[in-house]
Amino acid sequence: MRPTLLKDLKMSSRTMVSPYLELRNVTKLFAKVVANKHVSLSIHGGEVLALLGENGAGKSTIMKIVYGLYHADSGEILINGVEQKIKSPKDAMALGISMIQQHFSLVPAHSVTENIILGNVEGRIDLKHYHERVRELATEYGFDIDPAALVRDLPVGVQQKVEILKALFQKARLLIMDEPTAVLTPKEAINLMEFVRRFAAAGNSVVFITHKLKEVMEVADRIIVMRNGVIHGDVLSANTNESELSTLMIGREMPPFSEEMIVSSSAKPMLRLDDVSVRDTHGAYGLKNASFVVRKGEILGIAGVSGNGQQELCEAICGFRSLASGAISLDNRDLAPLGIRERIDIGIGYVPADRQRDGLVMEMSLAENMVLKSSYGPKWKKWRFLDRTRIAEYTRSKIRAYSIKAPGPEAAVKEMSGGNQQKLIVAREVDSGTKLIIFDQPTRGLDLGAIDYVHKSIIAERNKGKCILCVSTELSEIFALSDRIAVLYKGSIQGIFQKSELTSEKIGLLMAGYSIDAINPSAPEKLKESAQ
């Protein structure tokens, strides 16, 4: 029997039984902003439901209501046909609902077992007994985890498994997963999909929040699309495709993104790193002997799982971290004697991975954030004071140019969606980075429309002759934007390649620590690149 027919039969049988979870006409308002409007949906046992939508569409809000982090202004939540009042995550967990959020809630200094039982065990604790219970649970689901290992010593992919085990320990029947593959290698993502299928096959339910349409089509039984707080589509994955889903998400067809530009080998070298090593916050080498060149009008993509030296690399170039050894130059100028402000002045722009922690002051207005890095100079001065009228007009021009959804320059940044916050940072850093712009995870957590806009902005700056360093864990993004690709693993560059030399499978293996020789013994030596 065809797989599609099997899935249709499975779904039709579910409609004959009451859903495990049902929402009826749920509405949520933040001040006068409608986050969810009369949202009704259901999730059956044994079902994987994908939730899609742009930033601000209301998908995270509705799931946080289910998990007890937010409270609905009106509407009903039913579990197995019985109305429930979920006032906190504790109430949700008691009903068998667990949520794994994008930013893990683990205690790094504690062991795997201690994190799993935290808040779930009272009185005197027999740690050896719980080590064994955690080991049995991990083995049951095919997770290779040492219960006694400290979380801070684990790769991010293993930390995610700890979060999953924590939910399983709590006997979750509904697992909500928010962007679960954002920090995983392709192989780890495949393993996660296998777990999701096994968990659902045992009669449990999964809500899979993601912007990766390929993953949705692979793992979901049913797909709900939200826009502006309202459900705009509820379809079986067997009856739809990626193009239809993207149109439902953004309300229009997405034009194909494809722009190829060959960078001449004679183009002027701009950014040069020579055997650069940088220590991390613990004193260990976060980046080891990195050497590469980025030419004028070129995008060098840096691929790798988060935590493998990307932050150390970006911060060393921007001046936030000192070098343990090696040298960095931009346009033949040694950066070693220059401080952060001086590097900004010579034309370095930086879009950090964590926009809210490192890129913005959330309590400040759009206008104040736009001039954060240039307010000390003469550009915005009128006599001895800031020219607020000119700053406001400058900010309005960027709001228009970058299609930023905001009431105006005086609006607080914290009131905007993540996608619009990212556009604001990109607008500022594009102006600051006259020679070099560093994009670290430029589209993390963004929807399709915002991703498309940021990608086009990066390409536009490359076409102006700027050199671009683009760090991303998203392989599709690396392949879409990069002229050449470097792969980082545990602080070391595994190789630097032309885009045509790599496939998703090869780059995934390199991200996991395999050498190019192990992947393809007949391949030429790629572990070092000459700086010529």
Structural features, described:
Helix content is 34%, strand content 24%. The protein is of the alpha/beta class and 532 residues long. It has a six-stranded mixed β-sheet with strand order 6-7-8-3-9-10, sandwiched between helices. The protein has a six-stranded mixed β-sheet with strand order 16-19-20-13-21-22, with helices on both faces. Strands 2-1-4-5 form a four-stranded antiparallel β-sheet, covered by helices on one side. A hairpin with a 2-residue loop joins strand 4 and strand 5 (82-83). Mean pLDDT is 84; it is low at 1-16 and 521-532.
Q: What is the strand and helix layout of this fold?
A:
Elements (H helix, E strand, L loop, with lengths): L2 H12 L6 E10 L2 E11 L4 E6 L5 H8 L7 E6 L2 E2 L5 H6 L2 E4 L11 H6 L9 H14 L15 H14 L4 E5 L7 H16 L3 E5 L3 H7 L2 E6 L2 E7 L5 H9 L18 E11 L5 E11 L3 E5 L6 H9 L6 E6 L2 E2 L5 H6 L2 E4 L3 H5 L6 H5 L10 E2 L2 E2 L1 H14 L16 H15 L3 E5 L7 H16 L3 E6 L2 H7 L2 E6 L2 E7 L5 H8 L4 H4 L13
Parallel strand pairs: 3-8, 3-9, 6-7, 7-8, 13-20, 13-21, 16-19, 19-20
Antiparallel strand pairs: 1-2, 1-4, 4-5, 9-10, 11-12, 11-14, 14-15, 17-18, 21-22
